[in-house]
Amino acid sequence: MPTYPNVAIADWEAFVPEDALQEDGIHPDDGFERLESELVLPLLAEWRATLTNGGATSCGREVVREAA
Question: Would you say 37 and 66 are in contact if contact means Cβ atoms under 8 Å apart?
């Protein structure tokens, strides 16, 4: 995203295993609610570090990793 260096894409479809989703294919099924925070937390941590510690002013990656 060269036009917007402070933008990251959190790719929910690539991150979440299909069997962890409800029938709608979007919302996490019971027991998998933590996946939302696992996807977003690294991004928020980077942004917070920028604000509090003078960290990087651009995103370190364009797409967040897939779930393990």
Answer: no
- Count CB neighbours of 16 within 10 A: 22
C-alpha 11/C-alpha 21 separation (Å) is 14
pTM: 0.61
pLDDT level of residue 68 (50, 70, 90 thresholds):
very low
Residue among 65, 67, 68 at smallest CA distance from 9: 65
Do 15 and 64 form a contact (C-beta atoms < 8 A)? yes
Query: Nearest CA to 68 among 16, 8, 22?
Result: 16
Closest residue by Cα to residue 46 from 32, 58, 33: 58
Q: Coil, strand or helix: which one is 63? A: strand
Does the pLDDT of residue 49 top 60, yes or no?
Answer: yes
